Amino acid sequence: MLAEKVMATKNHRVVVTRHGGPDVLHMIAEPLPEPQPGEVRVQVLAAGVSAYDLMHRSSGMLPGTPKPPFTLGEDVVGVVDKLGAGVTAVAPGEMVAGATFKLGLGGGYSEYLCLPATALVPVPDGVDPVQAVCLVVNYLTAHMAMHRTAQVQRGERVLIHGAAGGVGSALLELGKLSGLVMIGTASRYNHDRVSAMGATPIDYRTQDFVQWTRELTGGGVDVVFDPIGGFRQLWRSSRALRRNGRLVWFGVAATKQAGLKVIPLTLLMVALLKLLPGRRLLLTPDLSKENNWYRNTLAELLDLLAAGQINPLVAARIPLAEAAHAHELLERGGYAGKVVLVTTL
Ligand SMILES: NC(=O)c1ccc[n+]([C@@H]2O[C@H](COP(=O)([O-])OP(=O)(O)OC[C@H]3O[C@@H](n4cnc5c(N)ncnc54)[C@H](OP(=O)(O)O)[C@@H]3O)[C@@H](O)[C@H]2O)c1
Q1: 312: CA distance to ligand 1 center in Å?
Q2: pLDDT per residue over 150-200, tens digit each?
Q3: Which of 5, 25, 36, 38 has the fewest CB atoms lying closer than 10 Å?
Q4: Per residue in 200-234, pLDDT tens?
Q5: How many angstroms does the Cα of residue 287 sit away from the middle of ligand 1?
């Protein structure tokens, strides 16, 4: 007897009920969303959890944070469930990956959501949806920073901060494919992973990364990738460069320990570094404004995954209903790679 697909009548979605700790995340049940013209309803299999989710959950101060209740989640992989009028690019039953940028903020922590068809890219057969979801924001960010912003050349020497994190591990994988010589900062417990991914690890907690980078390279690296931010951190990253090296700044992971006050201090140092000669400070463009690049590069990354040329590091697969545990894990640290929510439909 053929197994029949059970038709869901409700959507379960995790909402931020008010700003606060992980306990403000609650699951609600609601009618299934209906796709509008040009949209696709996706049954979510995997949704990424990111450092930005923690910032938007804990405070309403960050520009772009909506008033609660709202749903987090920037990246999803799922199965096409229903087409809105005029959609022909994808078919029901097909697996797709996509970012939720076009919705404004988030939406991914759901069993079902409607996304513009233009945000979706088909996932090749045989690919693990959890690994595929790592590509949508983390690998696109890493690809953008490495190839569009820094324009790295084979053989260049680079320092990657947060090398065991979601974006850092993506930079390591793409850097290896591009023939870069890599150094990565990480806590000691992540050093074996960083070495296995092809970089020389530095323990940023106990070692002076400026001194070690300059010693390892005999004068400094060509490029530093810095998703940590902070006044002192960015200044020190600039000192790890050789003369006329490039510093790519693209994040503020330091807010996890030091709070949102890190952001204005980071912007002040960014402005100072732009004025100082002897190095180039580079910023990454906004992923959400790069439609053609987004679709082409995500398809390219999915092909690399299907061909086994990249192997995204998954820190944990956590049921959607336990989203609060996922946030606790991110806040606690001690993981490597990306934390992913999975549905159990
Ligand atoms: N511009 C964009 O489009 C974009 C997109 C995505 C992310 N981001 C930025 O990138 C940042 C990182 O994102 P993610 O998803 O990779 O976060 P993540 O998975 O939480 O990784 C961050 C890593 O940073 C490490 N870390 C913390 N403080 C550090 C320090 N002082 N020096 C070196 N490493 C340190 C931690 O490593 P250990 O556990 O080894 O200590 C952690 O693994 C985010 O905070 C966000 O600001 C930007």
Answers
A1: 15
A2: 999 999 999 999 999 999 999 999 999 999 999 999 999 999 999 999 999
A3: 5
A4: 999 999 999 999 999 999 999 999 999 999 999 99
A5: 17
Cα–Cα distance list, 194 to 78, 143, 220, 240, 287 (Å): 30, 18, 20, 19, 26
Residue with tokens 């931010």: 229
Is the preceding peptide bond at 33 cis, omega within 30 degrees of 0? Answer: no
Give the helix/strand (H/E) hosting 315: strand 314-319
Contacts of 29 (CB under 8 A, 6+ apart): 10, 11, 12
**Structure-token pair, residue 153:** 């050349």
CATH T-level fold of 46-114+121-133+290-342: Quinone Oxidoreductase; Chain A, domain 1 (3.90.180)
What would the CATH number be for the domain defined by 135-283? 3.40.50.720
